[in-house]
């Protein structure tokens, strides 16, 4: 196993932080590689060493966060956590990465991030739908799925854009109880 040079990791983290900061200040389309280099305190060549362009940087940053959420889902499934406990981990992650999520939900790139987030939720929730429950008997599985995932994403957007008016555990418990009722 090869060791990753700490300077490489430090540069990549500075570049990721720079894109989030710049996106909170101006449109993604207006951000240049030079802006990124200046903000991250690296050379333009360093950015191109790690990323094809600013779109590749943003795609990889979004993928990174989606993959962390996916792993958290897998771990919650393995540990047989209920919706409340698995949601607590997510909301703590949202809180600890507030600048990323608040920027993604407020930027022009929000639709791309939102669609990736919805895809993840659909993938993770589709097998939890139970139409044998009395409350769901007359409902179509796809309708339930769309309702649940769009409601969940909308609640996350609301929570983040309102600057997290409830602690992660409280919002996770609220959503967990709702998911338990529906699914």
Q: What do you see in this structure?
A:
74% of the residues lie in helices and 0% in strands. The chain is elongated and about 60 Å long. Helix 1 crosses helix 6, helix 4 (54-78) packs parallel to helix 7 and helix 8 runs antiparallel to helix 9. The protein has helices spanning 6-25, 33-40, 44-50, 54-78, 83-96, 98-106, 110-125, 141-161, 168-182. It is mainly α and 183 residues long. It is built from 9 helices and no strands. It starts with 5 loop residues before the first helix and ends with a helix.
Summarize the structure.
With 183 residues, the chain is mainly alpha-helical. The chain has helices at 6-25, 33-40, 44-50, 54-78, 83-96, 98-106, 110-125, 141-161, 168-182.
Taking all residues together, what is the mean pLDDT?
92
- Going by helix content, strand content and strand pairing, the class is mainly alpha
- What is the global morphology? elongated
Helix content: over 70%
Residue windows where pLDDT falls under 50 for at least 5 positions: none
Secondary-structure element series:
HHHHHHHHH
Record field, number of beta strands = 0
Task: Please give the radius of gyration in angstroms.
Answer: 19 Å
Distance between the termini: 43 Å
| β-sheet strand percentage | under 5%
How many strands, which pairing sense, and closed or not: the largest β-sheet?
none
Count of runs of 4 or more consecutive helical residues: 9
């Amino acid at each position: 196993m090869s060791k990753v040079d700490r300077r490489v990791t430090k540069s990549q983290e500075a570049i990721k932080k720079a894109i989030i900061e710049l996106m909170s200040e101006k449109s993604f389309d207006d951000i240049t590689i030079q802006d990124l280099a200046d903000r991250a305190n690296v050379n333009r060549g360093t950015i191109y060493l790690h990323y094809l362009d600013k779109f590749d940087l943003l795609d990889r940053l979004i993928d990174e966060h989606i993959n962390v959420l996916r792993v958290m889902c897998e771990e919650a499934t393995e540990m047989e956590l209920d919706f409340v406990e698995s949601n607590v981990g997510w909301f703590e992650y949202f809180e600890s990465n507030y600048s990323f999520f608040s920027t993604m939900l407020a930027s022009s790139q929000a639709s791309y991030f939102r669609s990736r987030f919805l895809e993840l939720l659909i993938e993770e929730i589709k097998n939890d739908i139970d139409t044998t429950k009395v409350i769901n008997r007359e409902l179509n599985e796809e309708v339930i799925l769309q309702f649940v995932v769009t409601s969940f994403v909308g609640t996350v957007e609301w929570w983040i854009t309102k600057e997290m008016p409830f602690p992660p555990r409280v919002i996770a418990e609220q959503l967990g109880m709702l998911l338990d009722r529906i699914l």
